[in-house]
Fold:
Amino acid sequence: MRATPTVLENNRIKLVVEVDEAEMAEALDETAASLAKQVSIKGFRKGKVPKNVLIAHLGGLEALRSQAIRESMPDFYARAVADTLSDPIGQPDINIVAGESEGPLTFEAEVEIRPEIQIDGQGDLRVTIPSPNVLDSEVDAQIDRFRETDATLRDVERPIQTGDLVTMDLHVQQIATDVEPLEMSDYMYTVGSGTITGGVDELILGLKAGEELKLNGGLGEGVVATYTMQLKQVKERVLPELTDEWVEENTEWKDVEEMREAILTQMRRRKIVEAQLSQRDAMLLALGDLVSVDLVPDVLVDSETNERLHDLGHRLSEQKMNLEMFLQVTNQSPDQLLATLREDALRAVRIDLAMRALVKAEHLDPSQEEIDDELESTAKAMNTEADVLRENLRNTGRVVSFNAEVAKMKASRWLSENVTFIDPDGVEIDREMLREDQSHQDEAESAENVGESESTDQSAGVDA
Structure:
C-alpha cells in the first residue's frame, strides 16, 4: 500500500492511497471467512461455506468486494495516516477513485489535521505556586494550637474579636415559608468558625454583650432566612504561658526551643511537598495560556468534551449511579455540566497545543532511540512485546500520537527547568528547595503527625 499526502487550505490534507491487488485479495479472503461464519446456507454448516458458494449467495464477486472495501477501509485509512505521519483530528471524507470493481484500489481521504501553533514567551514564564518557606508567624500559630488545648476562658467587656466565644440566643426564621422558626438558647459560637451563615463573622466584630445582630443569610440550597442573635456573653481564650516546663509536661518535646525547631522542620517538609506537587499543573496552565482560544479547533474541544463525558458516565456506573442522579446530587442542569466539561476540555486542548508548540520552538523532538526506549517501557507495562505494540500503533494510525507523547514528556522536563516559580506575593522561589527529596518514610510520618496534631488541637479549641 502506498499513501501520498497533499497539503490543502484551511488546515486540511488529502491522502491519495493505493492498495495493491495482493492486499485487496487478502481483504477479500478475510471478509469471505468472516461472512462464512455469519450466513446460513442450506446444506452447509456456518464457517464451512465454500468461497464460490458464498459469492453466489451474495450475488457475485462484486458484492463481496464491495463488502470487503467497506470493512477494510478503516484499516487502510489508519495505516495511510501512520505511514505518512499525518495527525488528523476529524473524520475523513473518503472518495474511491479506482478499483471499486476490480484491480488495485485507489481512494482519496480529505481530513482536518492538528494545527501547528506558534507560541512566544515560554522562556519568561513566571508560575505561581504555594511558598515552601515557613514564616515565624506560621510556627507561632501552630504552637498556639498546642497551647489552646490547655486554654482557659475569661469573661471580657471589650468589643468582640475573632476567636472569642459568644453565648447567644439564636432565632432563625425562613423567609416566604410557613416553617416554624428555629430557637436556640445559650448557643455558644466561636467567632471566625463560619458555622452559622455567611456574613456573621464580619458583622459581629466590634459588637458587645447585650447587643443584637440581625441579618439575612442562606439556610441550605436556595433557602434564605432571617437570623436574629441576642449576644449575651463574650469570653476570650487565655493561653498558658509558653515555658519549658509547660512544653515538657504537655507535649512530646523537652523545651520551647526543641518544640519550635521540630514544628519548623515538619512544616517546612510539608510545604515543600505541597509546592512540589503543584509545580506541574501550575506550569502547564501558564503555558496553555500562551495559546489564544481563537486558534483552538472546535473539533478538538468537542472530542475532548465527549471523552470527558464518557469517562464521567463510566465512573458513575462503577458507583451505581447514572447521569440524572449525578445532576440531582450536584444541583446542576445538563447545560451547566456540559459547560463545565467543555471549559475543562478547552483548557486541556490549549495545554496540549502549547506543549506541541514548545517541542518545535525549543527543538525537543525525540530521537528514534528515545521513541524506541519509551515504546519498550510502555510495552513492558502493558505486558506485551514491543514489536506487537509498534504494529498496533501503525494499524490504528496512532504512531504520531505516541511520538507526540514522548515529545511532550521532554517538553515537560524543559518547562520545569526553565520557568521561574514565584510565591503568591511574587517572590521568586529557590529552585533548590523544589528539588529536595521529601519521600523518606520517617519524614512523611513526622509531617503526618503534625497534621494530626493540628486537627486534634483545632477540635479541642472549639470545644473549650
In short: The two ends are 80 Å apart (CA to CA). The mean pLDDT is 90. Residues 256-290+362-454 form one domain.
